[in-house]
């Protein structure tokens, strides 16, 4: 359960204050009103996200920032009489009620009037009256008003509303075409017949309907469509995508990866995925990676997997001695992410390819992630036991501080909170430092084993901080995790020498530059793609993978059983829908400047929604749990499209149970 108070505070800081709303009364009021009470129950966890949310009657509750922006623009004073048009959920009315002396608010849906009334009553806001009425006429009985806020877009400000403004009164309203973005307009009454108008910028509101707005059943035609005739229609964005797209065969076709030779000269090629359970994404990444290894000298395959687990795969593919660690790899949720037949096929191929080459020419598999704290702890100790028992004893003592929590690291976060933040920090940092200090000694014994132990020690250090931060639920924990992934990648590259080249397999949310997405815009999150760009410049290629529909392997809750769910068709306002409408079933779109037409690039640079399915997929709340705004050509250098995809096939045991073969992958 996320902490809603904390989320509210962050919402005010990041989405509102940082965007320039300064009015301290407005900010304080947003801190006080529980927005979760104004959204449908199943969307409560998204109540503080930076977006409008659907409510009953096909309407929306405004984005928090917009409510704040309008309240600030209307310069509401404690003694003011305020009129709101478009009560909706009643959230904005609640904010206004705290800011002003008296609020009247108008709504045309009886159902919304009822629910808003009971919410405001439960918050004991007695200075608001909700009327079932047609907004553009205003509410004459209580006029004049010091401020009028219209929460639905109309073609113009009506005379009735202007008339009901007091002298010096302010009216704020989104004005513009029904389906477009609108301008937020502020009208100030400066005299009996004088009004001043200011433009506060672009916004997008639901339409004001009724005789002075738009007809409720208006067709989707724009008002001026059909009036002017153009000899040539400008090409639509899907048409432009179809022209720029490089069609691809099935990933199992030997020709699939040829077109990816354009990334052969990169130091790091990052291959994304739009879910953690789609067969096509795994097979595509396997095919591309295989080509980069076979023809272009790539020797590192770095996965969004824990170091110790990936090390089991590495031992298999490079025929290194088995680990002393008895724990089988990839046992924890979500097992299907790596224990699947698609990964198995790739591991099988790499094992055979490596077998014909000397150790130094073999390609290895490495894990970048930091979830598997307990296995890493054990690995560091095992390694030290072998090479330096004295150091092992010291480390064991130091880690003793962490070990009780290792099986349930989240609990460590809880404990660290109450017992002082840096309870274990010193211990792990010292162990890592000791290990690095002895680098020369150890490395002379076995370079690979040293890399292994150092990576694990780094993992323990970062995981300790990660779990502590995770408990606070801030961007800090995400950033720690992605920074850890990046540092581990750098360490592997460093060990393999200046010519080493790596392929990274991680989710689109890790490999697409976060600064070009909502992650960076409103949550201050960075990721490995962004860090690679910063470090390697155009020597890094960030390649996203996406789909319109099909099936996906996923869970409904964390630690829940794997299910195969149908992926909803992509939303009309998403990048996926543009790709789908291109009618090219599979393609590579090279988004780099000079590779696509400037017109297409410019159109794709306009922020749009993109779908992110992780190990959890909740189709019912998809818009809120899985879509985020991005600027795709900034986020990715290229985009690989599969219109229809199907779920991965988890490996099964003799008993037929998915993902439970304890000998995997050594038994392959
Ligand atoms: N302020 C609201 C969001 C309102 S959305 C909140 O904080 O939740 C816009 C609302 O305006 C919708 O509920 C819609 O039903 C209402 N609306 C649209 N046209 C209207 C009209 N002509 N008269 C009154 N209300 C109208």
List keywords for this structure.
single chain, 668 residues, alpha/beta, Rossmann fold, EreA/ChaN-like  fold, 9-stranded mixed β-sheet, 7-stranded mixed β-sheet, 25 helices, 20 strands, 40% helix, elongated, binds S-adenosyl-L-homocysteine
Q: Brief description of this entry?
A:
Among the domains are: 4-234, 3-Layer(aba) Sandwich (Rossmann fold), CATH 3.40.50; 236-298 and 501-668, EreA/ChaN-like  fold (3-Layer(aba) Sandwich), CATH 3.40.1660. Helices cover 40% and strands 18% of the residues. Helix 5 (110-122) links the parallel strand 4 and strand 5 (128-132).
Major sheet summary line: 9 strands, mixed
Name of the CATH superfamily of one domain: Vaccinia Virus protein VP39
CATH architecture of one domain: 3-Layer(aba) Sandwich
- Oligomer designation: single chain
What's the count of strands?
20
Question: Which fold does the CATH topology of one domain refer to?
Answer: Rossmann fold
Q: What global shape is seen?
A: elongated
Number of helices: 25
Rg for CA atoms? 29 Å
Helix content: 25-40%
**What average pLDDT do the residues reach?**
85
Per DSSP, what share of the residues sits in E-state strands of 2 or more residues? 15-25%
CATH top level class name of one domain = Alpha Beta
Low-confidence stretches: 217-233, 411-422
What bound compounds does this protein have? S-adenosyl-L-homocysteine
């Amino acid at each position: 359960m996320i902490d809603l108070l904390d989320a509210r505070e962050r919402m005010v800081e990041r989405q509102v204050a940082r965007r320039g709303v300064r009015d301290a009364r407005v900010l304080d009021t947003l801190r006080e009103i529980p927005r979760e009470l104004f959204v449908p129950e199943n969307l409560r966890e998204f109540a503080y996200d930076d977006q409008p949310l659907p409510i009953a009657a096909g309407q929306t509750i405004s984005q928090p920032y917009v409510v704040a922006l309008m309240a600030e623009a209307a310069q509401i004073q404690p003694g003011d009489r305020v009129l709101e048009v478009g009560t909706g959920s009643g959230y904005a009315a609640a904010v206004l009620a705290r800011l002003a002396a008296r609020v009247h608010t108008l709504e045309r849906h009886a159902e919304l009037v009822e629910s808003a009334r009971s919410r405001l009553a439960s918050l004991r806001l007695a200075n608001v009256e909700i009327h079932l009425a047609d907004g553009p006429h205003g509410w004459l009985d209580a006029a004049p008003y010091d401020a009028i806020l219209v929460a639905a877009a109309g073609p113009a400000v009506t005379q009735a509303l202007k008339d009901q403004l007091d002298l010096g009164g302010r009216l704020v309203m989104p004005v513009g075409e029904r389906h477009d973005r609108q301008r937020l307009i502020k009208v100030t009454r400066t005299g009996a017949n004088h009004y001043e108008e200011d433009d506060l910028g672009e916004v997008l509101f639901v339409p004001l309907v009724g005789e002075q707005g738009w007809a409720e059943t208006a067709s989707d035609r724009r008002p001026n469509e059909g009036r002017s005739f153009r000899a040539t229609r400008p090409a639509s964005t899907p048409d432009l995508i179809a022209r720029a797209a490089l069609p691809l065969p099935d990933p199992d076709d030997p020709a699939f990866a040829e077109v990816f030779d354009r990334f052969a000269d990169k130091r790091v090629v990052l291959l994304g995925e739009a879910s953690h359970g789609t067969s096509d994404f795994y097979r595509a990444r396997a095919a591309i990676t295989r080509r980069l290894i076979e023809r272009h000298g790539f020797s590192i395959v770095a996965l969004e997997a824990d170091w110790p687990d990936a090390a089991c795969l590495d031992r298999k593919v490079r025929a290194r001695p088995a680990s002393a660690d008895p724990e089988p790899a990839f046992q924890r949720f979500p097992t299907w992410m790596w224990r699947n037949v698609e990964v198995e096929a790739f591991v099988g191929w790499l094992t055979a390819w490596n077998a014909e080459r000397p150790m130094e020419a073999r390609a290895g598999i490495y894990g970048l992630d930091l979830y598997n704290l307990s296995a890493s702890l054990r690995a560091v100790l095992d390694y030290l036991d072998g090479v330096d028992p004295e150091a092992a004893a010291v480390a064991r003592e130091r880690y003793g501080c962490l070990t009780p929590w290792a099986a349930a690291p989240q609990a460590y976060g809880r404990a660290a909170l109450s017992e002082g933040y840096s309870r274990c920090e010193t211990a792990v940092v010292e162990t890592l430092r000791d290990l690095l200090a002895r680098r020369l000694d150890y490395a002379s014994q076995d370079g690979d084993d040293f890399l292994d132990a150092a990576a694990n020690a780094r993992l323990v250090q970062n995981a300790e901080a990660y779990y502590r931060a995770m408990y606070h639920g801030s961007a800090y924990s995400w950033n720690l995790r992605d920074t850890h992934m990046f540092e581990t990648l750098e360490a592997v590259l460093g060990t393999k020498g200046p010519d080493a080249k790596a392929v990274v397999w991680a989710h689109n949310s890790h490999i697409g530059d976060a600064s070009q997405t909502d992650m960076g815009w409103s949550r201050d999150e960075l990721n490995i793609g962004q860090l690679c760009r910063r470090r390697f410049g155009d020597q890094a290629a960030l390649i996203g993978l996406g789909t319109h529909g099909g099936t996906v392997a996923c869970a409904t809750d964390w630690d829940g059983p794997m299910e195969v769910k149908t992926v909803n068709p992509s939303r009309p306002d998403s990048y996926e829908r543009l790709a789908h409408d291109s009618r090219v079933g599979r393609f590579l779109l090279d988004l780099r400047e000079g590779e696509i037409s400037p017109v297409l690039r410019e159109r794709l640079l306009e922020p749009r929604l993109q779908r992110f399915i992780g190990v959890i997929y909740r189709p019912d709340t998809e818009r809120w749990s899985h879509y985020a705004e991005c600027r795709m050509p900034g986020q990715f250098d290229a985009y690989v499209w599969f219109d229809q995809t199907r779920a991965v096939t988890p490996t099964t045991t003799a008993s037929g149970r998915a993902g439970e073969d304890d000998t995997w992958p050594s038994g392959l």
